[in-house]
């Protein structure tokens, strides 16, 4: 994986708990990315260990001069709070090259399909990049955004979104949904649900067979919107989704299964070396390796980028998230260490 040291060009306070960090491209080189992809930023933790987290670009690869990410504070979160508290103009941050399969590529030929975006909170970041890219590069495409937040103060990019509506009054529509709206709020209230998504999509005149759907937000939001898309038989190749945080599959085990969980020793063969890694119940194999300073490859830590892929040649492994792998990779025994839990003795992994 290629790394850059990118210099901070600007830091913008978007909402009380979210900043946008704009970076200069390196001298003599452009950071190449697709609308919707993410970079992975490395920062030191309190023990000066390097710690990485992924952030989607909110900038458009084709139209914005700076590469930009927006970072929302997570309660007690190490990197999101470090970036919000410490980053300033002129700093250099270590960044792993853009990656990710959640992206929009403008059509090279005229198209009459539209782009439907659904997000909540910081999930707006890749959607913002996609919205700007689609509106500017496809003159006939309409972009629709259904966006959930707590209240008006916490709507990330509120001003820029309004400006995009003014620039493209015929081609960009937004519906905001607020879960803790004040009494003056006249828009939709609550969380985005199957019912509200269906109502809004129909209102927009969405074509469920032809339009492209991009969703980014918590698991619950995707499940609700997916119910609508399933109901209207939207082709799966037109549905794109990204989660920022994988939920643990171990939380779904019944009491008897959960009581069986125990420490497992996983043999990992990587870079000509063999490591016996002790993985505690509820830890992922990657977490256990990093805790012991074993430098396995990784980037997003959410099952989205495949940077941590390995082949399980023996034993049983359960994954929180399988979307990053193809069906044939799963059949061949490939796993993602960042979301994988050993479920038997004798797990052996080979990482290329
Ligand atoms: C592909 C990808 C793209 C992303 N893009 C963005 C982005 O554009 N903007 C952005 O702000 N974040 C984004 N994230 C999330 C980001 O990578 C970090 O996970 C987030 O900033 C929290 O990191 P932290 O070190 O502050 O928290 P940690 O120290 O890792 O976690 C602290 C606690 O919060 C929980 N937690 C961690 N992340 C979340 C979350 N997202 N929601 C709820 N609970 C959480 C953890 O389980 C833990 O209990 C993205 C993640 C992925 C995988
Ligand atoms: S680190 Fe990205 S899929 Fe595991």
TrEMBL record:
Pfam families: FAD_binding_6, Fer2, NAD_binding_1. It comes from the Bacteria. Gene3D superfamilies: 3.10.20.30, Nucleotide-binding domain of ferredoxin-NADP reductase (FNR) module, Translation factors. Signal peptide: none annotated. The keyword Metal-binding applies. Residues 264-352 form the 2Fe-2S ferredoxin-type domain. Residues 1-105 form the FAD-binding FR-type domain. Keywords: 2Fe-2S, FAD, Flavoprotein, Iron, Iron-sulfur, Metal-binding, Oxidoreductase. InterPro entries: 2Fe-2S_ferredoxin-like_sf (IPR036010), 2Fe-2S_ferredoxin-type (IPR001041), 2Fe2S_fd_BS (IPR006058), Beta-grasp_dom_sf (IPR012675), Cbr1-like_FAD-bd_dom (IPR008333), FAD-bd_FR_type (IPR017927), Flavoprot_Pyr_Nucl_cyt_Rdtase (IPR001709), FNR_nucleotide-bd (IPR039261). PROSITE patterns: 2FE2S_FER_1 (PS00197), 2FE2S_FER_2 (PS51085), FAD_FR (PS51384). Its cofactor is FAD. The keyword Iron-sulfur applies. SUPFAM superfamilies: 2Fe-2S ferredoxin-like (SSF54292), Ferredoxin reductase-like, C-terminal NADP-linked domain (SSF52343), Riboflavin synthase domain-like (SSF63380). This is 2Fe-2S iron-sulfur cluster-binding protein. It comes from Lacihabitans lacunae.
């Amino acid at each position: 994986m290629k790394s850059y040291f990118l210099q901070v060009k600007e830091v913008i306070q978007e909402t009380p708990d979210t900043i946008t960090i704009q970076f200069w491209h390196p001298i003599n080189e452009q950071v190449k990315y697709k609308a919707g992809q993410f970079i992975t930023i490395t920062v030191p933790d309190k023990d000066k260990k390097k710690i990485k987290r992924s952030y989607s670009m909110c900038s458009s690869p084709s139209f914005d001069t700076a590469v930009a990410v927006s970072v929302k504070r997570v309660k007690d979160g190490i990197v999101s709070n470090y970036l919000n508290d410490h980053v300033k103009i002129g700093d250099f941050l270590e960044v792993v090259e853009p990656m990710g399969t959640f992206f929009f590529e403008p059509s090279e030929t005229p198209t009459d399909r539209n782009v439907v975006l659904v997000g909540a909170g910081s999930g707006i970041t890749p959607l913002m990049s996609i919205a700007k890219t689609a509106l500017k590069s496809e003159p006939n495409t309409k972009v629709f955004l259904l966006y959930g937040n707590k209240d008006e103060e916490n709507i990330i990019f509120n001003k820029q979104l309004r400006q995009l509506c003014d620039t493209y009054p015929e081609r960009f529509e937004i519906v905001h949904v607020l879960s803790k709206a004040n009494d003056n709020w006249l828009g939709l209230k609550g969380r985005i649900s199957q019912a509200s998504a269906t109502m809004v999509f129909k209102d927009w005149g969405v074509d469920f067979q032809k339009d492209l759907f991009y969703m980014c937000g918590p698991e619950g939001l995707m499940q609700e919107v997916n119910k609508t898309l399933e109901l209207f038989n939207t082709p799966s190749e037109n549905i794109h989704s990204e989660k920022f945080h994988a939920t643990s599959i171990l939380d779904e085990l019944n009491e008897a299964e959960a009581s069986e969980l125990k420490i497992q020793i996983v043999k990992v063969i990587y870079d000509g070396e063999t490591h016996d890694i002790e993985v505690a119940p509820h830890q992922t194999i990657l977490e256990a390796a990093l805790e012991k300073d074993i430098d396995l490859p990784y980037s997003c830590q959410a099952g989205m980028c495949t940077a941590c892929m390995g082949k399980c040649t023996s034993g049983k492994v359960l994954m929180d998230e399988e979307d990053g792998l193809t069906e044939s990779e799963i059949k061949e025994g490939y796993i993602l260490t960042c979301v994988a839990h050993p479920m038997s003795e004798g797990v052996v992994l080979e990482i290329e």
